Amino acid sequence: MKKTKKIVGIITLVGILVLAIAGCGKEEEVLKVGMELKYPPFETVDEEGNPTGASVRLAEALGEYLDMKVEIIDTPYPSLIPALESGSIDIIISSMTITAARQEIVDFSDPYTTSQLMMLAHKDSKVKSPADLNDPEVIIASKSGTIGALWAAANAPLAQVLTLDEEVTAVLEVAQGNADVFIYDPLSIIRHQENYPDTTVAILEPLPNTQGWGIALRKGEDDEFKQQLNDFIQEAKTDGTYDAIRAEFLEDKIKEFEDQGLDFFF
């Protein structure tokens, strides 16, 4: 009887060891998050070239929530949605504004910010408010694939849209008077106006027909996954995740908004 118990004990121990070894060899599921790392303080790199910023921290928090390892895939902004469609990335967290045009191609989570669109205008431009944009004489400079270009196409079809590959180039066109306005989020508009204070003005009147930033996922993705994203966003706003991100990356930006009389959007 003692021998039988000893054999059973050995078999049990071996079974436990086998399961432990198998568990150690199990690969952690990876969540590939696409973002263009050219938009500090949300998506950028540190001195060693590692992804960092508010969006990166949000992605990492999402990975912890889903019990998945996060891999940040640096992707040019115009290529983000094609990369999502092809399966090269699983989701997009890249300060991407939810629009009707984009919703025809991809699905979005609930907004995780309330960011609106505003304008940087040349000081001598005829554009003084969003109502002035839909005019054949108005030139709107925008970065390819961004919300500025999409908004202009949908809301100011009479205007001339100058599409450029880089944000800084589009801004320079306005600063030099070659374009009337540059459309983007208020954080960028304030920063660019500070860079060109003599030739530009910030028009901090929100443009109509926009929503906040959302997490993009493939069209028709599992509804359960989308619900997980929405649950995470709701929880992150109340469990201290957003507070920690603001404290690490956004304190000076919050002050800039307060100085302009604006509510911060993150």
From TrEMBL:
A cellular-component GO term for this protein: membrane
GO molecular function: ligand-gated monoatomic ion channel activity
InterPro entries (alphabetical): Iontro_rcpt_C (IPR001320), Solute-binding_3/MltF_N (IPR001638)
Solute-binding protein family 3/N-terminal domain segment(s): 30-252
Keywords, ordered alphabetically: Signal
Claim: Signal is one of the keywords in the record: yes
SUPFAM superfamilies (alphabetical): Periplasmic binding protein-like II (SSF53850)
Pfam family, one: SBP_bac_3
PROSITE patterns: PROKAR_LIPOPROTEIN (PS51257)
Keyword Signal annotated: yes
SMART domains found in the cross-reference section: PBPb, PBPe
Domain (Ionotropic glutamate receptor C-terminal): residue spans on this chain: 30-252
Domain of life where this protein originates: Bacteria
Name of this protein: Amino acid ABC transporter substrate-binding protein
Natural source organism: Petrocella atlantisensis
